[in-house]
Write a structure and sequence with these properties.
single chain, 550 residues, alpha/beta, FAD/NAD(P)-binding domain, 2 domains, eight-stranded antiparallel β-sheet, 23 strands, 21% strand, globular
């Protein structure tokens, strides 16, 4: 689509499509591409952000977009003050561009543990167990290692071994395995326990090697010229148009004003764990006690909207190093960066291709646990306060998070203004079990990081020290921990009264309205959430197409 066509599309008010998709993030790109495969279906995708740029193509550019200063391809939300974090406001970066958070994330391709999905099925989400969802993971994937019983080779999403992992990342893997934790060469076969280098959503073909393979680059960009697909960017949805109990369209606002798009079959919300529940609430769909204080008429009482927010809380251990083969601020580092940029442009194999979190591990903080409860991300830089606090020199860090948090928060409204940010309250550490798990995980991680395998890299530890008490660990965690960007659950799938969507992702009690994104996850997966979100959309697209045929 040309720029002129995009501008014209934004001014067409009242046009009817079969399916109107709200949100061009990971799920929205999959839905738009898969639904428009059927030439009989007319599909419209509405995205608040923009399209392609070098900042979405170059993986290392995440250090520019992540901090949200300025807000480049990033909603840069904040939470309400968190009592569990000493009253601090947490930071919640979310992608605002075609590709959504897959355009600004660390590109890690991780599915979680098989028990995560069997847990969904046990809660009444029939058809969402591990063996049910595995074919949809496979369908989405073009893995550089080829196809096997767990991986695909022909899907749109290129999944690759890293182009140029640093030696220090391999040393981290050695340090973890020296602690009697197994080595894991593939985290995505259903049992992710162990340590290794992450695979990433990155192009490995010769034409685009080393570039980020966002959901937009994988699914949407190759099909933008389909005559039955319209993509509207820089347009924020402001409400769902309802006729009785049926969704029939979407209101949106762009630079030229307010517009409407009609949906003959379905409106599909793909805004993510924050924006999807917010749009439902703005449209009068939610708990009456959440809507009435803002003067919003209740169209459909649905008490679970915005509830069940889950996220992975992240605690960082960090060290300074003399190794300039890491990201840092120094003369030598600056010279190296220029060299890396030139090589990345030539063959895609330099440090510009890094996901920053090059290595990691899934570990058990207690030996009696049935599956890993802690995830480690080893980062070739000191990423403090989401890269908003910078240090001179070079360093590395290890991030620790509890994989199955018990704390539950919510997403609500700050007022009736559809352009206002949502109210985000994760209630971090509101359940004591999360704090105790994070303390155990941090202790174990520090023992690993201070072992002999990392000795040649260590210069000085930045925050923690030997012989800290649990009270001192707690103080550090409450003072410095924050999200590692995995919010889910706020439009929960299920069959009980608090479920927002059924196992076919249809909004309960309404017609012509689905939610397809991370918000439908009933329980947070034990790992990063981008790959599961793409899987959900692959499966949902098949459901929608079958319903359209029937």
């Amino acid at each position: 689509m040309t720029d002129r066509q995009a501008r014209d599309a934004r001014h067409m008010t009242g046009e009817t499509f079969d399916h109107v998709i709200v949100g061009g993030g990971s799920a929205g790109c999959v839905m738009a591409a898969r639904l428009s495969e059927d030439p009989k279906l007319r599909v419209c995708l509405i995205e608040a952000g923009g399209g392609k740029s070098i900042l979405t193509r170059a993986p290392a550019a995440a250090v520019i977009t992540l901090p949200g200063r300025p807000k480049i391809n990033n909603w840069a939300f904040e939470t309400v003050p968190q009592p569990g974090l000493n009253g601090r406001r947490g930071y919640q970066p979310r992608g605002k561009a075609l590709g959504g958070s897959s355009a600004i994330n660390a590109m890690l391709y991780l599915r979680g543990h098989r028990d995560d999905y069997d847990g969904w099925a046990a809660q009444g989400c029939t058809g969402w167990g591990w063996r049910d969802v595995l074919p949809w993971f496979i369908r989405s994937e073009a893995n550089s290692r080829g196809a096997d019983e767990f991986h695909g080779a022909d899907g749109p999403l290129q999944v690759s071994d890293q182009q140029a992992p640093r030696p220090i990342s391999r040393a981290f893997v050695d340090a973890v395995t020296a602690a009697q934790i197994p080595r894991c060469d593939d985290f995505n076969r259903g049992d992710n326990e162990g340590a290794g280098l992450f695979q990433v959503t990155q192009f490995f073909d010769d034409t685009r090697r080393g570039e980020r393979c966002s959901a937009a680059a994988a699914y949407l960009h190759p099909v933008m010229n389909r005559p039955n697909l319209r993509v509207i960017t820089h347009a924020q949805a402001t409400g769902i148009i309802m006729e009785g109990r049926r969704a029939v369209g979407v209101r949106y606002r762009d630079r030229s004003g307010d517009h409407e798009i009609r949906a003959g079959r379905e409106v599909i919300l793909c805004g993510g764990a924050f924006n999807s529940p917010q749009l439902l609430q703005l449209s009068g769909i939610g708990a009456p006690e959440d809507l009435k204080p803002h003067g919003i008429e209740v169209v459909h009482a649905l008490p679970g909207v915005g509830r069940n927010l889950q996220d992975h809380l992240d605690f960082i251990l960090a060290w300074k190093t003399r190794d300039t083969d890491t990201f840092g601020i120094s003369l030598r580092g600056g010279i190296n960066l220029i060299r890396h940029i030139l090589r990345w442009r030539r063959d895609g194999r330099s440090m510009i291709a890094t996901p920053f979190a090059e290595a990691g591990a899934f570990i058990r903080s207690r030996p009696d646990l049935p599956r890993p409860d802690i995830q480690l991300h080893f980062v070739i830089s000191v990423v403090e306060d989401h890269a908003r606090k910078l240090y001179m020199g070079h360093g590395y860090s290890c991030h620790v998070c509890v994989l199955h948090p018990h704390s539950r928060g919510r997403v609500g409204l700050t007022g009736p203004d559809p352009l206002a940010a949502p109210l985000i309250d994760p209630q971090f550490l509101s359940d004591e079990r999360d704090l105790q798990g994070l303390i155990r995980g941090a202790k174990l991680t520090r023992n690993i990081m201070t072992g002999p395998e990392m000795a040649r890299w260590r210069l000085r530890e930045l925050h923690t020290s030997d012989n800290m008490t649990d009270a001192e660990w707690e103080a550090h965690i409450r003072a410095r921990a924050d999200t590692i960007y995995h919010p889910v659950g706020t439009c929960r799938m299920g069959v009980d009264d608090m479920a927002v969507v059924d196992p076919q992702l249809r909004v309960r009690g309404l017609e012509g309205l689905r939610v397809v994104d991370a918000s439908v996850m009933p329980l947070i997966p034990g790992g990063n959430t981008n790959a599961p979100t793409i899987m959900i959309a692959e499966r949902a697209a098949d459901m929608v197409k079958r319903d359209a045929r029937g």
